[in-house]
């Protein structure tokens, strides 16, 4: 979901998916989508030839962005987000 | 096609993630060759969705996180590959849990992995997979010194040849 960050952190093999948080393997109930992700991850695991290999999956999330953006977030803000909002200052 | 890593992230959060580079002391590339064929390999999964067995395992400690918002529970849970969706619960204060609880395969596709083993895409799946809760204290105390060695030992016990890490 954030392959650029995985690369920065030196993950040896990375599969990128443009999916909302909490949905690494895709839509609930969509076995075909889940299989595409898992099979690609296995191919990259076994087939990458050097550290830093990244392969992105060309699958578009089938939910409008605004709706998907809201849907993955918790109904109650996480404690750290609450703290940031209350303090009005950025946290490290 | 390049994935946009920040498509679903609130814009104000982006600076907390982007451009920070590797953790101190982790600048060098990490690499272990994968020498076996997939068809001969035993594969394990790890999710950071905070899944646990609701009847037999404690939840990740979200109460302590509520009291100390910069802390995250560094412990881990072993999840049997044949666990039914109804046996799983999720403790992760940074995600809406509805979709994962409706279909845990979107976080930990253990049944799909078993299917790939039955189809001989892989040799086998480990009997157990692993679950952690992805929000961690920046120091990674407890994670580096305890959880990671335990996870590695468990992978070796199960003769895993490869691990798919699935961030939540």
Describe this structure in words.
The complex is a heterodimer of chains A (92) and B (168). Chain A has 92 residues and is mainly α. Chain A has one domain (3-87). Chain A has 4 helices and 2 strands, in the order αβαβαα. Chain A has helices spanning 3-8, 31-47, 65-71, 79-87; strands spanning 13-16, 53-56. In chain A, β1 (13-16), α2 and β2 form a beta-alpha-beta unit. The mean pLDDT of chain A is 94. Chain B has helices spanning 14-17, 62-67, 98-102, 110-118, 143-157, and strands at 42-47, 51-53, 76-80, 88-90, 124-125, 128-132, 162-166. Chain B starts with 13 loop residues before the first helix and ends with a strand. The chains are: A mainly alpha (92), B alpha/beta (168). Chains A and B meet through α1, α2, α3 and α4 of A and α1, α3, α4 and β7 of B.
Question: How would you summarize what this structure contains?
Answer:
The complex is a heterodimer of chains A (92) and B (168). Chain A is flat, with a radius of gyration of 16 Å.
Distance between the termini of chain B: 22 Å
How many beta strands in the DSSP annotation of chain B?
Answer: 7
What is the distance, rounded to the nearest whole angstrom, between the alpha carbons of the first and last residues of chain A?
22 Å
- Outline of chain B, from the CA principal axes? globular
Strand content of chain B: 15-25%
What does the radius of gyration of chain B come to? 17 Å
Key traits:
heterodimer; A: mainly alpha; 42% helix; 9% strand; flat; B: 168 residues; alpha/beta; five-stranded mixed β-sheet; two-stranded antiparallel sheet; 23% helix; 17% strand; globular
SSE layout and pairings?
The complex is a heterodimer of chains A (92) and B (168).
Chain A: H1 3-8, E1 13-16, H2 31-47, E2 53-56, H3 65-71, H4 79-87
Parallel strand pairs in A: 1-2
Chain B: H1 14-17, E1 42-47, E2 51-53, H2 62-67, E3 76-80, E4 88-90, H3 98-102, H4 110-118, E5 124-125, E6 128-132, H5 143-157, E7 162-166
Parallel strand pairs in B: 1-5, 1-6, 1-7
Antiparallel strand pairs in B: 2-4, 3-6
């Amino acid at each position: 979901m954030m392959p650029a960050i995985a690369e920065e952190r030196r993950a040896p093999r990375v599969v990128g998916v443009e999916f909302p948080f909490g949905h690494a393997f895709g839509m609930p109930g969509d076995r075909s989508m889940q299989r595409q992700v898992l099979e690609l991850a296995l191919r990259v695991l076994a087939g990458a030839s050097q550290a830093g290999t990244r392969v992105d999956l060309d699958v578009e999330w089938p939910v409008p962005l605004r709706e998907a953006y809201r849907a993955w977030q918790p109904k109650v803000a996480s404690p750290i987000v609450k703290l940031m909002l209350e303090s009005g200052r950025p946290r490290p | 096609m390049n994935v946009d890593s920040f498509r679903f992230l609130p814009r104000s959060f982006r600076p907390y993630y982007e451009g920070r580079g590797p953790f101190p002391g982790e600048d060098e590339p990490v690499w272990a060759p994968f020498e076996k064929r997939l068809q001969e390999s035993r594969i394990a999964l790890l999710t950071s969705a905070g899944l646990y067995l609701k009847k037999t395992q404690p939840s990740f400690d979200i109460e302590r996180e509520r009291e100390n918002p910069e802390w995250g529970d560094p412990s881990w849970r072993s999840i049997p590959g044949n666990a039914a969706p109804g046996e799983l619960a999720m403790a992760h204060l940074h995600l809406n849990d509805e979709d994962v609880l409706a279909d845990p395969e979107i976080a930990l596709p253990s049944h799909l992995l078993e299917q790939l083993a039955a189809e001989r895409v892989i040799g086998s799946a480990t009997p157990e997979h692993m679950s952690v809760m992805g929000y961690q204290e920046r120091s990674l105390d407890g994670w580096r010194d305890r959880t990671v060695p335990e996870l590695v030992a468990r992978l070796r016990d199960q003769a895993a040849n490869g691990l798919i890490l699935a961030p939540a």
